[in-house]
Amino acid sequence: DADVTQTPRNRITKTGKRIMLECSQTKGHDRMYWYRQDPGLGLQLIYYSFDVKDINKGEISDGYSVSRQAQAKFSLSLESAIPNQTALYFCATSAGGREINEQFFGPGTRLTVL
Amino acid sequence: RKEVEQDPGPFNVPEGATVAFNCTYSNSASQSFFWYRQDCRKEPKLLMSVYSSGNEDGRFTAQLNRASQYISLLIRDSKLSDSATYLCVVNRSAGNKLTFGGGTRVLVKP
Predict the structure, then answer these.
(1) The Cα angle at residue B84 between residues A113 and B33, in degrees rounded to 5
(2) How confident is the model at residue A1 (pLDDT cuts 50, 70, 90)?
(3) Which of A60, B11, B57, B107 has most Cβ atoms within 10 angstroms of its Cβ?
(4) Are A46 and A61 in contact, with CB atoms under 8 Å apart?
């Protein structure tokens, strides 16, 4: 079984709709992240959480919100989707501590906003 | 200027050849450096960390040049399976926040 899972894997929606992307992990990691990837731009950090009570904005948080429901679950919401939020979204996890630890990514969610 | 810049490629490489490419970073306070590999439409996966003294992992060699603010990746004896996009990743502060470059695409051909 995959250590980091994302649902849905693909989603097509319309402008103005509310969308939730979910991420679950079985790695026991404290830290979780949401990124979006656009062609040629690399991954951009949307939000991150270092534990259940910790939520932090990343580089491009406008238009997004998150919820850390448990250590293993981190969901990303688009309250009112717009076409420029069409992208590939990745969830990632890493272990805590002072060192910079490897991030493990989920398989991604391809979101299209019409 | 982007914080982490890479030549997007593609680098077309004959099987068995050597290919090398660089990544530049703008923040001199950057502390940790990595190469991630991403196959088409798949998630990124850590290829290797980059240490100050340079490091090697099989056919892959990574170098860091702090004075000129770039890191490099060299792939020897390229295999068809090395075809992928290679993401340069930099951490510039305490905490596990990473900044990703746009990636360099490598295509290894028979």
Answers:
(1) 95
(2) low
(3) B11
(4) yes
**Closest approach of chain B CAs to the CA of A114, in angstroms?**
21
Cβ A77 vs Cβ A62: under 8 Å: no
Q: Note whether A42 contacts B100, CB cutoff 8 Å.
A: yes
Q: How far is CA A29 from the centre of its chain?
A: 15
Query: Is residue B58 helix, strand or coil?
Result: coil
Q: Which residues contact B81 (CB under 8 A, 6 or more apart)?
A: B108
- Return the residue matching tokens 């502060």: B93
pLDDT band, very low/low/confident/very high, at B28 (cuts 50, 70, 90): confident
Rounded to the nearest angstrom, the minimum Cα separation between B107 and chain A is 16
Contacts of A88 in chain B (CB under 8 A): 41
Say which residue, B96 or A46, is predicted with more confidence: A46
What value does the mean pLDDT take over residues B5-29?
95
Spell out which residues of chain B touch residue A40, defining contact as CB-CB under 8 Å: 8, 102-103
